[in-house]
Specification:
Blueprint (H helix, E strand, L loop, with lengths): L10 H17 L3 H8 L3 H8 L7 H10 L10 H8 L1
Helix pairs in contact: 2-3
């Protein structure tokens, strides 16, 4: 996840993308529906869900809200643990 606008994905972004994708499957939400619910354009959202593009903090929060999960549930364990400390 990136605050900067570089858009370059990292290993953390890839893990976040995987967690979001798993949550979407569990919640039975597809990427087009998620794009509509969050206001994030479909193509950039899809790139983020594939781990090819970093999400902004605002996008990340919109996604968590749209699928009704705590943002910490979508973070890798190491990131969530350091955020809680």
């Amino acid at each position: 996840m990136s605050i900067a606008s570089s858009g370059t994905a990292t290993a953390t972004d890839t893990e976040i993308a995987a967690r979001i994708s798993n949550a979407l499957i569990y919640k039975n939400v597809n990427a087009k529906d998620l794009a509509a619910q969050t206001g994030i354009s479909y193509k950039p959202l899809l790139a983020s869900l594939k781990g090819h593009r970093s999400l902004t903090v605002v996008e990340f929060r919109r996604i968590a809200d749209a699928i009704n999960v705590r943002p910490s549930e979508l973070l890798p364990d190491t990131v969530a643990a350091s955020a809680a400390a």
